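Appendix C reproduces, verbatim, an entry submitted by the partner laboratory led by Prof. M.T., so that reviewers can inspect both the input and the predicted structure.
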Amino acid sequence: MKKRDNYKLDIVPGVVLALFALFYMSQIPGIKVFKGLGSTPLNNHFIPWLWGGALLTLSLWLIVRGILKYRRVKAEGKLSNEGSLLKSLSDEREVILSFIALIIYVAFMESVGFIIMTCVYVFAQILILTPTEKWAKNIIPALITAVITGCLLFYIFRSVLNVLLPVGMFGFGL
């Protein structure tokens, strides 16, 4: 089965993203409204609603596209059991591992700190996107890139843009 005929690669991410969008949008009412200098119809709920709505719309489109692909493949009689869900997910392992790495990055940034978590995330992301047979050759350059990226981003956000970032349990960046 050709990758363009694999409807599961649209339906599964579509459902996951739709669930995430619904969770995201359910958290928006908890954001405290900042009144600022006056009344305006655009408050600090507008952009989260806009992003959440866009993500939900796009994820629903993925689901619809997957269903349309399924119907087309079924009508052509090309529906086979060879393309199992597990096989489809393993074909997209880089995407899944990238989402997992991003979730871990966000979950531990406050407690561990921006510099360390950014270095770990960039290093992990480089390895995820590098073919496994090239890991031995790329481990040192990936490590150097991760450390430089983490420190440089911290400097830019903290010193140039004056954005406070979590320093974590080790107090780096005080």
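Residues 92-174 form one domain. Additional entries are available on request from the coordinating office.
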